[in-house]
Design brief:
17 helices; 2 domains; two-stranded antiparallel ribbon; alpha/beta; binds S-adenosylmethionine; 450 residues; Rossmann fold
Length: 450
């Protein structure tokens, strides 16, 4: 067959220009299948480039995973969406690849992290401002400790003060107030968001941090006696680390970030080109709010407000006032098997699969026809039973209208994708093996109405 001549060149460059919708869908399906059948472990690959290492976040993606999917399944300028963006790994990669990044989350800290990560900062402004706010904060601590103590009383309500008093030393409290006050006064929103992120990153850390909690980054805080650490020294250290690997994520367009419950997205039908996302585990296995409130209280959120918000997170373990949906066959069986052993846990699982059904329905609505939705989920055991998240979510996805193209399994890099501490140290047993495995579900929205 000879090559097409003039008039066809543009079609060749644009790739799909002469394709009918069903051929487009077929090639998308093949591509998705090929990608998910390939190697998805990325162990040993360097992941701390650009802004990826700026803030701890449990169960974050290795950036190579969304990168591969975005590069192969979209064209520059197309819209890549993550409705549970967390530390915005998908959005960062979308921007680095010149796609339009769109992201949402229910978690206020995720939104703060995204605001800071996705803007371009000027390193020399950061150094100069960092020095200045540290000097002013230190001066306030040295000369106006009484004023800061009054500010503490004024800023926080009683419950929030009790929480802070339990988890932070008095001296640390005053240092944190003096620093956050300086940050709030910054007029440049980019610098303000950036320094809020650095501030939060000295509290939510893998080990240590300036609170009295250990394992905050794993969302399993427990109180320990620690050597006192200076907020100012930690802040300066983090600033240096954050800027070490920094380069901005260039984009054809600014990212759009918004607060939303993934079950109810304020987006038009058929409006995004690719979704790459990962939901929380069932039964609060990773309890985002439990850790994130250690930072959020300093940004003005009262603890009661945060506790109320926590109830709206997917995978919660309370069962009052939740909407349970009818489950398809296999998922219903898994829920029933668990209910026989433990009726409360059975309801918690039913809640999780119902919430995931609502999210899959929303993703089905907003993704364009013929395009892919990739959902990364961990395996979970409840009361010793494997609750088969891969099979159940595949089935639920098909129930809401998706074609299931492929389910891949990947081994998590145990040092990278931070998981709750109790999942570590179970050396080699079955539970430990399961918790370090996750599934990548590839769905496609059919090109035509059924
Ligand atoms: C596994 S994390 C996502 C991590 C992300 N892929 C990354 O690379 O950082 C799951 C996210 O779901 C969010 N989430 C939980 N419930 C939600 C809800 N109802 N609506 C939107 N996001 C929710 C959590 O706040 C958390 O950020």
């Amino acid at each position: 067959m000879h090559k097409p001549r003039s008039g066809h060149v543009l079609q060749e460059v644009l790739g799909f220009a002469d394709e009918t919708p069903s051929r487009k869908e077929a090639s998308h399906r093949q591509r998705l299948k090929r990608l998910l059948s390939g190697k998805l472990d990325f162990h040993g690959e360097y992941s701390n480039y650009a802004v990826h290492s700026w803030h701890s976040f449990p169960a974050k993606f290795p950036p190579q995973l969304p990168r591969l999917l975005i590069r192969e399944l979209t064209e520059p300028g197309e819209i890549v969406f993550d409705p549970m963006m967390g530390s915005c790994t998908t959005l960062t990669e979308a921007m680095l690849l010149n796609r339009r990044a769109l992201g949402s989350d229910i978690d206020p800290l995720a939104l703060e992290i995204a605001k800071a990560k996705l803007k371009t900062i000027n390193a020399s402004d950061v150094w100069a401002t960092g020095r200045r706010i540290l000097a002013s904060a230190q001066k306030a601590c040295d000369r106006n400790a009484d004023g800061l103590a009054k500010e503490f009383e004024r800023r926080f309500n009683e419950n929030t003060r009790t929480f802070i008093d339990y988890w932070f030393r008095k001296k640390t409290q005053l240092e944190l107030i003096s620093l956050v006050r300086e940050i709030e006064c910054l007029l440049d929103p980019c610098l303000r968001d950036f320094f809020k992120l650095v501030f939060s990153s000295i509290i939510i850390t893998k080990s240590g941090g300036v609170s009295l909690a250990r394992d905050l980054a794993h969302t399993r805080p427990h109180k320990v006696e620690k050597k006192p650490t200076s907020v100012f020294v930690e802040f300066w250290r983090r600033l240096q680390r954050v800027l070490r690997d920094y380069y901005p994520a260039a984009s054809v367009k600014d990212p759009s970030i918004f607060e939303a419950d993934a079950r109810n997205l304020p987006l038009r039908d058929n409006s995004v080109d690719l979704i790459v996302t990962s939901p929380p585990y069932a039964s609060h296995a990773i309890d985002y709010m439990r850790a994130h409130k250690f930072s959020l209280v300093w940004f003005g959120y009262p603890v009661e407000h945060l506790s109320a918000l926590r109830k709206k997170y997917i995978g919660g373990d309370s069962i009052g006032d939740v909407r349970l949906l009818p489950m398809p066959k296999h998922s219903g069986q898994v829920v029933r098997s668990l209910s026989h052993l433990d009726s409360k846990k059975g309801l918690v699982l039913h809640r999780y699969y119902s919430e995931m059904m609502q999210i899959l329905l929303e993703m089905f609505r907003v993704i364009k026809r013929g395009r892919a939705v990739v959902v990364v989920v961990g395996s979970s055991r409840m009361r010793g039973i494997d609750v088969q998240t891969d099979k159940c979510l595949s089935e639920i996805g098909e129930e809401v209208g998706f074609h299931l193209v492929h389910v891949a399994e990947r081994r998590m890099d145990r040092d990278r994708r931070m998981m709750p501490a109790r999942w570590h140290g179970n050396g080699g047993n079955n539970i430990e093996l399961r918790m370090h495995k996750e599934f990548v579900l590839g769905f496609l929205k059919p090109a035509s109405e059924p």
